[in-house]
Design a protein that fits this description.
- This protein is α/β, with parallel strands linked by helices and 396 residues long.
- It folds into two domains: 44-96, Multidrug-efflux Transporter Regulator, Chain: A, Domain 2 (Orthogonal Bundle), CATH 1.10.1660.10; 115-391, Rossmann fold.
- The chain is built from 14 helices and ten strands.
- It has helices at residues 3-32, 46-53, 57-65, 84-96, 128-141, 156-160, 176-179, 209-220, 230-236, 255-263, 275-297, 319-332, 345-352, 367-391; strands at residues 44-45, 73-74, 80-82, 115-120, 146-150, 192-193, 199-202, 244-248, 266-271, 306-311.
- The strands form two sheets. Strands 6-7-5-8-4-9-10 form a seven-stranded mixed sheet, with helices on both faces. It has a three-stranded antiparallel sheet with strand order 1-3-2.
- α9 packs across α10 (255-263).
- It starts with a helix and ends in a 5-residue tail after the last helix.
- The structure holds adenosine-5'-diphosphate (ADP) and magnesium ion.
- Magnesium ion (MG) is lined by residues 128-129, 152, 156.
- Adenosine-5'-diphosphate binds at residues 124-130, 156, 251, 312-313, 341-344, 347-348, 351.
């Protein structure tokens, strides 16, 4: 067997395996997820709706009895259930009679700049996608206008939002279309609404890898311009349409991540507090700093509003993890978010059915398991929301 033949054989085998896998996935999708099936957001109890709106449950009840605002669904036990659209409609209604503007709608006001949050770390499995998805959804449910961008060719954030990266994006539709060097499309052409009010998505798939290949080529023939501004420039087309952009970055420090970093006004570095992860993070930080130096040398403004570490999949009963957490907090102080994202089977199980914990019903889990996980996620996300508010000069 010659060397070339071996090479071809390997290609053929890999191609065959890929086709088998695609076929299997396709039929699985057909059975589990018929072509016209769409994801939807669950309904919220009146208590949950009140908490998302920042009012008392009794006040919501009064609005309902007075016939004001949307009509919630009534359960057989006469409990009120609100859809996420109902909650958004109520928010708009409450804002109309608010004592001061912005009491119910928390987003940007005149002069506030768009917040672009890059969620990164080159370690796969450090919780980037889980963090990005829950942050984007929580902010949208709280009334921020959010754009979530999947910049990872592996496209987990995309799948989590009911878009199949292998099947639904055959003719493009990722951010690559809007940041490519030749003939970029308007960014609006790749933005799609989700089943959650206030939340739009730019999905990703393997096509994003093209940017990693195009950039060196464009750099060598002088066509790249300031390549690291491609994401920022694309986003500037929709600057007025959103309060917050959340970018789920790929697990590597390539041109995509660099472009996200240059666009970001806030940076979240996810850390799973285990020794191997922390060691690789130190490399990640050094390489990031080196790259940012290079970008800054070409005249780019690398200033940002904030940078925070978020502890992910944290197990408070695990002694070695606690030592690492103590060490990180000692070293980095306030740069580590107070609230950690706890490890929870509720979060990983929800992920198995391509859902965030905000999407699954509380009844799907033991109450204490669900509550502990959701409280931890809310605490992380609300701490980030407070940072956003501070950036806009508001106390929280
Ligand atoms: N807090 C958590 N508790 C339990 N499992 C988690 C948690 N956060 C993430 N996971 C699981 O860990 C895996 C990796 O997380 P993910 O967010 O996809 O990481 P990354 O995007 O950095 O690769 C996923 O299977 C996810 O469901
Ligand atoms: Mg990911």
């Amino acid at each position: 067997m010659t060397k070339t033949e071996t090479h071809e054989d390997l290609n053929a085998v890999i191609r065959q395996h890929s086709e088998w896998m695609a076929g299997q996935l396709h039929s699985q999708r057909e059975s589990l997820f018929p072509p016209d099936a769409t994801k939807s957001m669950r309904k919220f109890t009146s208590g949950e709706a009140a908490a998302l709106l920042g009012v008392n449950d009794s006040y919501l009840r009064k609005l309902h009895l007075d016939g004001k605002g949307p009509s919630p669904e009534l359960t057989p036990g006469n409990r009120r259930l609100y859809s996420s659209q109902d909650i958004q409609d109520l928010r708009v209604l409450l804002e109309k009679t608010a004592r001061k503007p912005g009491d119910y709608i928390p987003g940007r006001r005149d002069g506030d700049h768009l917040q672009i949050i890059g969620v990164m770390n080159f370690k796969g499995g450090s919780g980037k996608t889980t963090t990005s998805a829950h942050l984007a959804q929580r902010l949208a449910l709280r009334g921020y206008r959010v754009l979530a961008i999947d910049l990872d060719p592996q496209a987990s954030l995309t799948a989590l939002h009911g878009v199949q990266p292998e099947f639904d994006l055959e003719d493009g539709g990722t951010l690559y279309d809007a940041i490519r060097f030749d003939d970029p499309a308007p960014i609006t052409s790749v933005i799609r609404p989700t089943y959650i009010p206030n939340l739009d998505l730019i999905p990703g798939n393997l096509e994003l890898m093209e940017f990693e290949h195009d950039t060196p080529r464009a750099l060598s023939n002088g066509h790249a311009g300031l390549f690291f501004f491609r994401v920022r420039e694309a986003l500037s087309q929709v600057d007025d349409d959103y309060d917050v952009v959340v970018i789920d970055c790929p697990p590597q420090l390539g041109f995509l991540t660099m472009s996200a970093l240059s666009a970001a006004t806030g940076v979240l570095v996810t850390i799973h507090p285990e020794m191997l992860d922390v060691m690789s993070m130190s490399q990640f930080l050094r390489m990031t700093a080196d790259l940012m130096d290079v970008i800054a040398e070409s005249g780019a403004d690398m200033s940002h509003d904030w940078m925070r570490y978020v502890l992910t999949r944290y197990e408070p009963a695990d002694a070695p993890q606690n030592r690492i957490v103590a060490f990180l907090r000692h070293m980095y102080g306030d740069s580590v978010l107070n609230a950690p994202m706890l490890k929870s089977t509720a979060i990983s199980d929800a992920g198995l059915t391509k859902q965030t914990l905000y999407e699954v019903e509380r009844s799907a889990f033991t109450r204490s398991t669900y509550d502990r996980a959701i409280e931890s996620l809310n605490a992380v996300n609300d701490e980030i929301a407070a940072l956003i508010q501070q950036t806009w000069g508001r106390d929280t």
